[in-house]
Specification:
Elements (H helix, E strand, L loop, with lengths): L2 E10 L2 E11 L4 E5 L6 H9 L6 E6 L2 E2 L10 E4 L11 H11 L4 H14 L15 H13 L5 E5 L7 H18 L3 E5 L2 H7 L2 E6 L2 E6 L1 H6 L4 H6 L4 E8 L2 E4 L2 E5 L6 E7 L5 E2 L8 E12 L3 E8 L4 E7 L13 E6 L4 E4 L3
Parallel strand pairs: 3-8, 3-9, 6-7, 7-8
Antiparallel strand pairs: 1-2, 1-4, 4-5, 9-10, 11-12, 11-14, 12-13, 14-20, 15-19, 16-17, 16-19, 17-18
Helix pairs in contact: 2-3, 2-4, 3-4
Amino acid sequence: MELSIKGIVRRFGPVTALGGIDLDVAEGEFLTILGPSGSGKTTLLKTVAGFEIPDEGAVLLGGQDITLTPPRKRDVGMVFQNYALFPHMTVAGNVAFPLEMRGLKRDEIRRRVEEALRLVELDGFAGRLPRQLSGGQQQRVALARAVVFGPGLLLLDEPFGALDRKLREGLQLEVRRLQRRLRLTTLFITHDQEEALIMSDRIAVMDRGRIEQVGAPSDVYARPATRFVADFLGESNLLDGNLAGGAVRMDGFGPVPLPGQPPGPVTLLVRPEAIRLAGAAEAAPCRGRGRVVETIFLGLSAKLRVRMEDGPEVLARVPLRPSMPPPAGEGEWLAVGFSPEDAHVVPRG
């Protein structure tokens, strides 16, 4: 089902947690709410789930107003970070619970539980207790319980936060495949930018109770609408300058052509992977010289912090091969540059 959030306001005393949220999630879409702690994303999820009642606005699921509908009567499945499994129940008992609450017959419950466990690749685990499972297996049980009754909407509240990196990355792809297979409309909450970019059809970036931007991951990353989005989503170089005569002039770099833009102060976003170094920078239209302050080895790539001559510090990310060292060591001077097409104008302030 499609989800529509219309003008949602939620206040806690003098604090406005949600300041008028409008958001539509299409049928079968995977939309991620991304934001820092305190941005309001969990309050928004609780409002959709029915655990919070908004002061203003409405929540519609499949065109039906569910704003005041109790959580148990909403056609919504939910997966929490802490799994929320019943410790005294078996895996099968946990998955069967929402079906039993809906009064299904025993044979139908058994069939659906078996099917849900196959979907999450837990065949043969039906008789185990949660304490006999790994964290990743418990999360799969929680996912099976959330989808076993065929909900119209799936809510995921930072479900991978308690898992180690390798397991988390594997489950991200599994959940995405399952969501696509079932065509489940999904609202996903996370503060992990990389996770949001990997999993989402669209991302809604929140800050201080408001949505700053909604768009496809590639659009939000490459063309952020605000300085907050540019700084929060991924690593960024935000370079302040002044636009005059169709070019931006800034400390540390040569002029950056920006035809068609009005004159005045501007900020340019240049992602670290767009920064060219050493020989690769010699042909870059916008370049200068800098001294390497720090080199951070990341396996397949390296991050270099470079202090520009008479200019700001920039972050560059360069790919590595086993036989290829970073382009310069700490303390060395080198050419630094980028192309105008890799620079995106973001609002000042």
